[in-house]
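Fill-in record for DNA-binding protein.
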Amino acid sequence: MSGLEKRSELDAGAVALSGQLGKTVQRLRKAYNLSLSELAEQSGVAKSIISQIERNETNPTLATIWRLSQALDVSIERVLGSTEDAPFIEKTTKVDTPVIFSDDGKCRLAVVGWLKTVEWLQWYDFQAEPGGVLESDAHQRGSVECLSILAGEVEVEVAGVIERAIPGETLRYRCDRPHAIRVVGNKPAHATMVCFMKAALME
């Protein structure tokens, strides 16, 4: 193979890789529901550069690809790999599931959400004995908590406002100020709790 033919083959491979990279970055960014600006902020890569990568208008350096892979929480191999996501199943056993208890010991929060998402999404399995109280400090500004009742009856208090819920009902409330969950009645309570930490939610 001549030098010119070899160079043409390498150029063709670079173009194919660039096209694949742009599609992968865009797909992962949208999967995380990130805007170009948010990905730029999290990765340290300029918004204009990310836009060019997604449109296949530039061949980024390895350092740029590494920054994007860190922000998107994937390996460089995956970013540079196939545009089709490989099957993904991850199992966490009961023993490996972190558990948090309230000060009174009557409320139990099992961290069932992905630990890699705790900065923007937190998901818990909430179980509590009768009379249990879970008091929480304010989370970051604009955070919203969703409490879906599966069993028992609970009340949530936020800034002096109190609302009760029974099985089948969901309470959504700002948790960027001190708040408390109390079990009402003489039956244990069970609920799922999801906390969205995005500050823009309540803007």
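KEY FINDING: The first strand starts at residue 99 and ends at 101.
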